[in-house]
Specification:
By secondary structure, the chain is of the alpha+beta class. Helices cover 34% and strands 20% of the residues. It has helices at residues 2-15, 23-28, 58-71, 132-138, 142-152, and strands spanning 35-41, 44-51, 87-93, 119-122, 127-130. It starts with a helix and ends with a helix.
């Protein structure tokens, strides 16, 4: 359902039709959890966006994140209609982030399990999010996840 909604949301940008969410879908996916949508074209990221803090029901956050990934991720040009059939969409429903408290920054890596945990690195003006799938794909250690999170932020 979430993948279908994400794809329909992106298509709605081009066909100018709103995405209708049935009451059945709203009941099924009305949970309020963080979500992240990644678009890939030929196994390369083409856009990614999500909601970590402003937690909305999934039937609202998934279409917004999908459209943002397609058209508002400033690292990539906006998606073009001709690319629609080539795009693979991944929707990740996340748990609510928990603050990791340490006395010494070197302790962070020991608190992270790559491929199981995701991380959110927050700076004054931005944040970097690394999902467990990215760590698994890259075969990253906890230190590499932290480094990538800082680069992304």
């Amino acid at each position: 359902m979430l993948l279908e909604i994400a794809r329909r949301a992106i298509e709605s940008y081009f066909n100018k039709k709103s995405v209708r969410i049935s009451d059945v879908m709203k009941r099924s996916i009305g949970t309020k959890l963080p979500v992240f949508v990644i678009l890939k074209k030929k196994n390369r990221v083409r856009g990614s966006m999500g909601f970590i803090d402003n937690i909305l029901p999934l039937y609202e956050s998934v279409p917004k994140a999908a459209k943002n990934a397609a058209f508002a991720d400033t690292r990539y040009p906006p998606l073009e209609e001709r690319e629609l059939q080539e795009i693979r969409i991944t929707v990740s429903v996340l748990s609510v982030p928990k603050l990791i408290e340490v006395r010494n920054p070197e302790e962070y890596a020991g608190k992270i399990v790559p491929s199981k945990d995701g991380i959110v690195v927050v700076t004054t003006f931005s944040q970097g999010i690394i999902l467990p799938d990215a760590a698994a794909e890259g075969k990253w250690t906890a230190e590499e996840m932290l480094r990538q999170g800082c680069i992304t932020a």
